[in-house]
Amino acid sequence: MMCDMDPSARRRRSDDDALRAKPRPTITAACSAAVIAVGLAGIAQAEQHEFELNAPGAHNVYLAGEMTQWDKGKVPMRRETDGKWRVTVDLGRGEWLYKFIVDDKWIADPESPAHDADGQGGQHSFLFVGAGDWEELPGVPKGRVETLMLESKAWGKSLKLNVYLPPDFATGKRYPVLWLLHGSNMDADQWLKTGEVNRYMDNLIGRRAIHPFVIVMPSSESVPYTGKSERFITQELRAWLAKTYGLETNRAESAVAGMSMGGFGAFDLPLRHPDLYGFSFALSGYFSDDYIAKLPYANKLPMQAILLCGSNDDLVGTNRRLVRALHERKLEFYYREDVGAHTWQYWSNRMVEMLTAVDKFFAAEQVAAKSVQ
């Protein structure tokens, strides 16, 4: 469930490797109760990017990141006469996490301000390739992000919390809420500092592609949104949100999304709290065999569910097993695989889809509520 992979990190390989999809045209299949798709659409042409590090005294320098599968395919850099090490690589559109390995020591790019915690006690750097809603565009009204340490009785300590408030937010006005969940060993900053979700929101709202809504980004460390984390989110944070911003949401105004460990939480929380959340958007989630085996047999899922995973993701096997179990139970959901791995390059290219899907859910529920009044 890690989202950054230094050499000691995840070496997990699914026993479904043999089932991994080879490149093929987009396929969408309606299987009685499920929609399942595997596609290659939207793969952008690569652009060349030069990485540079000023380390004249180093003996060996490598580039390692999502583009090299971290340590597995690390790329040697060349030292030039000015003492700087350089290498040029082809990168597809989207976000890429990376580090340098300098004489066997892993470091973030010292010249880049774009960095965040890597979940292993260090920092990774990141960059965006090409134009996209991750950019901070001039003239676009900006929402604000409020960051605080919130005391939790469930955890017995304070946890970091980020709340995105859309442009012209007014306390007491009714807004839907997206609960956005991070990956394992990370915190509330992952979707903000690495994901730049506030920029996506500003740009989408600015061109009226979506309606304004609030995003709550809680911290859960390595706890998969169960137990104390579940109580913190479903009880303490909801009460704090109502008290602080006057946001008392119902299930029609609450969605959950996340990636990796957060992808599991995005599916599991609405499943177990159908009175609180009506929509689930799970990216590259991890679903254990034990969890899948215990899924209830019911007439339908209590929430609308969208699950996406990269076809080269180590977790694609768990997603396929979940899909089979849901299909066997004749439950309605949407699942799709696109070319990609367990990377921010994959997730950054799904961000607009995720936020747009959340907005469509909120809008449809609002229409449905008015029709019965």
Please render the helix and strand layout as text.
Blueprint lengths: L26 E5 L2 E6 L7 E8 L6 E5 L9 E2 L1 E2 L4 E8 L2 E9 L2 E3 L7 E3 L5 E7 L14 E9 L4 E9 L11 E5 L8 H5 L2 H10 L7 E4 L9 H19 L8 E6 L1 H12 L6 E5 L5 H5 L10 E7 L5 H13 L4 E6 L5 H5 L2 H21 L2
Helix pairs in contact: 2-8
Descriptive terms for the model:
6-stranded antiparallel beta sheet; 8 helices; Rossmann fold; Immunoglobulin-like; 10-stranded mixed beta sheet; disordered N terminus; alpha/beta; 2 domains; globular; 373 residues
Tell me the radius of gyration. 21 Å
Number of strands: 19
Number of helices: 8
Helix content: 10-25%
Shape: globular
CATH topology of the largest domain: Rossmann fold
What's the story with the biggest beta sheet? 10 strands, mixed
The CATH architecture of the largest domain can be given as: 3-Layer(aba) Sandwich
Order of helices and strands: EEEEEEEEEEEEEEHHEHEHEHEHEHH
Low-confidence stretches: 1-34, 37-43
- How would you state the average pLDDT, rounded? 89
Structural class: alpha/beta
CATH class division of the largest domain: Alpha Beta
